[in-house]
Amino acid sequence: MEIYEQAVQVFQEIKDKAARRIGDLLVVGCSTSTILGEMPGTDSSEEIADDLYRAFTEVFGGKFEIAVQCCEHLNRALVVEKAVAEKYGFTIVNVVPHKKGGGAFATRHYYSLKEPVVVEDIRASAAVGIDIGGVMIGMHMRPVVVPAKLSNRKIGEAIVLAGISRYKYIGGERARYNEV
Q1: Structural domains of the chain ordered from first start
Q2: Is the peptide bond before 10 cis (omega within 30 degrees of 0)?
Q3: Backbone φ, ψ for residue 76 (5° rounding)
Q4: Residues 24-71: pLDDT tens digits?
Q5: Looking at residue 37, what is its pLDDT?
Q6: For position 41, what pLDDT does the model report?
Q7: SS3 of 13, please?
C-alpha cells in the first residue's frame, strides 16, 4: 500500500475518533525522513510531503483549524493561517520554512495557505494532535490528553500517535460529569 492510501486510512480513523472536537485546533508534526525509514531530519522528501498533505487535506480540510509543527531547526515553531494566529493571540515570528529548515511537510503546509505565518508556539491549545514519526508534539496539546488508540498506526515506516484532549474532571464524590 502506498503512502497516500496509508495516510488516508490513518487520518480517517483519527478524524472519526476526534469528531467531537471538530472546529478546534489540530496540531500535526511529521517527519518525512522517518516515513522513509530514516532518522528524522536526514532525508526530507517533498514527494512524500505532497502525498501526505493531499491525504491530510482530503480528510481534515475545513474540519479543524490546523497548526503544523516545524522541525527542531526552527525550535518546533508552527505554521498556521494568519487569522488563526490572530484569533488565538499567538506570537508571529519572521521565518519561512523550507525542506532543510522546517521540514518538507511544514513547508508544504506553509505554501498551501492563503496567509501563512509561523508562530513561536500555540500555548498548549491544540485539542487534537497527530505525531508522525516521533516528532514530539505533546507540548502543543491542551491538557488532559487521552491517547487515541488506532488500529492503523503506521505511515510508511513511521509510527503514528494521536491524542485528543478532554476537559479536566473536577470535584469530589458528589460531582457529576458529562459523557465524553
Answers
A1: 3-161 (3.40.50.10360)
A2: no
A3: 60, 30
A4: 999 999 999 999 999 988 999 999 999 999 999 999 999 999 999 999
A5: 95
A6: 86
A7: helix
| Sequence letter at residue 66 | I
DSSP characters over 14-78:
HHHHTGGGTTSEEEEEE-HHHHTTSPTTSS--HHHHHHHHHHHHHHHTTTSEEEEE--GGGTT-E
Per-residue pLDDT reduced to its tens digit, 117-126: 999 999 999 9
Q: Which residue has the cell 525522513?
A: 33
What dihedral do alpha carbons 165, 138, 71, 90 form, nearest 10°? 60
Per the CB < 8 A criterion, the answer to whether 48 and 16 are in contact is no
| C-alpha cell belonging to residue 144 | 488532559
Helices 46-60 and 104-112 sit at what angle, rounded to 10 degrees? 50
